Amino acid sequence: MKRSGISKFIIACALISFLAVFESINNKYSNSGETKVGILQFVEHEALDFSRKGFIDGLKESKQMGNIKVIYRNAQGDQSNCTLIANQFVAENCDLILAIATPAAQSVAAVTSQVPILVTAVTNPEDVELVKSNKMPGTNLTGTSDLAPIAEQVKLVKKINPKAKKLGILFSSSEANSKYQSNIAIQEAERIGLEPQIFTFSQMSEIQAVVESMAGKVDAIYTPTDNMVASNMELISRISSSFGIPVICGEDNLISKGATATYGINYYDLGKGTSKQAEKILINGMNPKNMPIEYASKNKLILNFEMIDKLGIEISEDLKFEL
């Protein structure tokens, strides 16, 4: 009888332990527990910073998210740092990881197929094989794309300078999304009668020489959303303006860095949109594999009037009407 009693006691304890573990797992995302969200940002520049801020503000404003601990780490533009940080987030049992920019997204996707991953400021996740398709990811990853309105941006060249004939397309050859965007820009340029010319660099130290080589060869420069371009826009615009060449950029934050004009997306709003996806995953239990990649819904004409005056550009009434 004693042995039977002991056996029943042991079984009861085991059952209680099992139920405790089950309850802990079941309440993983409850308001009483702590939800850990890791944020890996590839490099510091305004667009990516605004994406992060919008995401964090969106989480804070949510009435359903409960107790959230955000862990932010920046890879400082180093791919090996991306891999290190991605592994740290997995080891720290983050409930969700946000990867900002393509290199960060690739690193996180390479180290986990279990932890839900959101990406933002990634132009085309499908093109860089982060998802099976943008409409139906089919993996543990989804997010928001910063695909710019490239056709409208290229058309700005003619709106600013109707006599323009040659368009220089400048980007980093090491960024897959930049290549994707440049191909679109080439098609759009040819469609409106502009002759596209490609200029690339692989390291920041090459930028000055590449931009200087464009003098006398192009009537305007187009830069897609590109991390290395964004980090060096002040240099690019300073050199190009000295040769009288306007720069049409891929993101609105670069206007303050000297770019001439753009139809831009708002990265803060993009980050906020990504926070809504986080809520769907963490609170509503949605699976990223069934959540389509989302896109910015608002585009706005932004002009750098100081640069326009410096370059002696006369803005048409039609363009003024769009402001």
Number of strands: 12
Catalogue the unreliable spans.
Answer: 8-32
Beta content: 15-25%
What percentage of residues falls in helices of 4 or more residues?
40-55%
Look at the helices and sheets and give the structural class.
alpha/beta
Round the Cα radius of gyration to an integer and report it. Answer: 24 Å
Characterization of the model:
With 323 residues, the protein is α/β, with parallel strands linked by helices. It has two domains: 33-146 and 267-292, Response regulator (Rossmann fold); 150-264 and 300-322, Response regulator (Rossmann fold), CATH 3.40.50.2300. It is 44% helix and 19% strand. It has helices at 2-26, 46-61, 79-91, 102-111, 150-160, 176-191, 207-212, 227-231, 233-242, 267-282, 305-311, 317-322, and strands spanning 34-41, 67-74, 96-100, 117-120, 141-145, 166-172, 195-201, 220-223, 247-249, 261-264, 294-295, 300-303. The strands form three sheets. The chain has a six-stranded parallel beta sheet, with helices on both faces. Helix 2 crosses helix 10, helix 3 packs across helix 4 and helix 5 (150-160) crosses helix 6 (176-191). The radius of gyration is 24 Å and the shape is elongated.
Give a quick precis of the structure:
By secondary structure, the protein is of the alpha/beta class. The chain has twelve helices and twelve strands.
Q: Which features would summarize this protein structure in a list?
A:
about 325 residues; 2 domains; Rossmann fold; alpha/beta; single chain; 6-stranded parallel beta sheet; 12 helices
